[in-house]
Every structure is written in C-alpha cells, then in structure tokens.
Amino acid sequence: MLSHRVVELISASRMWLWMMPLPTIPLLSFSPLLLNDQHSRMEPMRL
Question: pTM here?
Fold first, then answer.
C-alpha cells in the first residue's frame, strides 16, 4: 500500500517536471531522500 502511494507520487512529480521544467530546482530541494548528500555538499556553494 505504501509503495503504491510512493509510485503514484513519483509518477505525478515526474509528469509535473516533464510538463513544467522550470520549477525543477524548487522540487529537488523538497526531495532530501534523493539528494541528501548533494544538498549538504552544495549548501555552502549555493547561489
């Protein structure tokens, strides 16, 4: 049940990104599970 919800969320997010590529950065900042290491690594150098 939980995995089905996750897949639903991911597919919706991917379609949203595909349709509107501009807000990609704000969405990525909301996915710490995927970019946890990159976020902590890029934080001191972010613009």
Answer: 0.31
